[in-house]
Every structure is written in C-alpha cells, then in structure tokens.
Amino acid sequence: MSIATSISTALPRLTQAQAELTRHIDALNEHGVHEQVSIPAERALTVYVDKREIVTLMTLGAHPELLVLGYLRNQRLVGHVSEIESITVDWEAGEDGAGVAAVKTRHGIADIAARTEKRVVTTGCGQGSVFGDLMGEIDHLTLPHARISQARLYGVLNAIRLQETTYKSAGSVHGCALFSSDQMQIFVEDVGRHNAIDTIAGWMWMNGVIANADSIFYTTGRLTSEMVMKSAQMGVAVVVSRSGITQMGY
C-alpha cells in the first residue's frame, strides 16, 4: 500500500528517506552449497527534538519520518501533529553509521527534560522503553463501543495472508495493519512491532485518519500492555494478535 502524506500548512514537512529494507548475504545451506539469502536491513536511527537527543530506535527504515512522528505521539511528548514543524532524516549523519532524525517543533516541548527523565524498560523489541508513567492518562481515554464478527475476523486474517511482505522474503520482522470496515488502510513492517504501530500512528496523524468503531488494529506480535495502550491512544477499540496477550495487556 502506498503511504502518501496530506498537504496542509498545519502539517510538518517530512523528508522521504526510505532505506533499503533487505540486504543479500552469502550463506552456506544445509547441503553445503553457497547461496545468497535476504535478511532485514536493521539500522539505528537517533532522534533529536529541537537538538536534544531523545532516543535511538532500531528500525528497517521503511518510513522513518512517520515512525518518529508516531513515536512522539505514542510517548505523549507531542499532543497534536501541528506542533511539529519538520522531521528531517539523514541516514549518514550520525556516529558509527547511525541515521539521525532531526525534529523541529514550532514552539518547543514544555518540560521535555523532566518528561523524558523517567524511563521504563518494556518488552518491546526494536524499542524497549517508554517515558514517564506507563499507565499515566490511560484511565482518561474513551473508546467507541465496538464488536467484531467471526466472518470479519477471518477476513482480516486472510487479508494479512495475501499481503506481500518483507517477512515472506527475509523473515525476522513484525507486521502491523490498520483496518477500517473490511479495508486494509495501511500495513507496516519493522524489526519491532512497537516501531510498526508507531509508524501507523504517524500515518494517521499525517492523513487526518481518526479511528472509529469499525477500526481494527492487527499485529503479528503479542499484545503487551504497551501495545494495547498505544492502540487505545490511537482510538482503536479492537486489537487482534496472531501471538497472544500478556496479563498486563489484558
């Protein structure tokens, strides 16, 4: 699915620094024969907000600007997309070959030092930490009343099965998708499911997509507390996992 950004003066300017998703390496197979195989091209992306280093994300780099935008949204560091003036990604600007994402806000982020001081290490592969109180503000969220039929659930799973994916060619990645009614709106893969859901959150902001009772979030990974809370912050009331759910997620 093509990911296009809306044009609006209130939206941030984004670079389009998509990186190669896979690379080929030489391997020796079980028959002793040399062959080339594809593996995911994981890379580091260090995020700076108004020149202040925030975090380093490990990512495929499919849509790094949307990933950073969604990360700031789901970490509750930014309350609205219009607060961001621009996100610039350069894959060669960091030390030791790491990429850099430079975020420029319009008016700064109040108390950013205090808000990023407390860090909680989570189960998230490819991310693994959140700022502040993990359960903060979650009780104030209101989600639409939603139901999902067996037929619709099967439809979601079949759509994922038919989707062309990096996982099919190289493995070792997670996939997440957002559905509205029976239509897949966006499908994202990354080395961690948290990166994938953050990218979807960024895409929703850039395209003015608001979740409703027909929205469904799907992930190949497990539904930990952080994944469920991110879905709730995005306004999605139905979450589907191919793997399962933890006690805190429940």
Describe the structure.
- The protein is α/β, with parallel strands linked by helices and 250 residues long.
- Helices cover 23% and strands 30% of the residues.
- The strands form four sheets. A five-stranded mixed sheet has the order 1-6-7-4-5, covered by helices on one side.
- The radius of gyration is 18 Å and the shape is globular.
- It starts with 12 loop residues before the first strand and ends in a 9-residue tail after the last strand.
Distance between the termini: 31 Å
The strand count comes to 13
Unreliable stretches (pLDDT < 50, length at least 5) are: none
- Return the structural class: alpha/beta
Strand content: 25-35%
Largest sheet: 5 strands, mixed
Instruction: Kindly report the spatial arrangement of strands forming the biggest sheet.
Output: 1-6-7-4-5
Radius of gyration, taken over Cα atoms and rounded to an integer in Å: 18 Å
Average of per-residue pLDDT values: 89
Please provide the ordered H/E string of secondary-structure elements.
EEEEEHEEHEEHHEEHEHE
Q: Provide a count of the helices.
A: 6
* Proportion of residues in helical segments: 10-25%
Which characteristics define this entry?
30% strand; five-stranded mixed beta sheet; 13 strands; alpha/beta; four-stranded mixed beta sheet; 6 helices; 250 residues
In short:
The chain is α/β, with parallel strands linked by helices and 250 residues long. It has helices at residues 64-74, 112-115, 150-162, 166-170, 193-207, 225-233; strands at residues 13-14, 22-28, 34-40, 43-49, 52-59, 84-90, 99-105, 119-121, 129-131, 174-180, 183-190, 215-219, 238-241. The protein has a five-stranded mixed sheet, with helices on one face. Strands 11-10-12-13 form a four-stranded mixed sheet, sandwiched between helices.
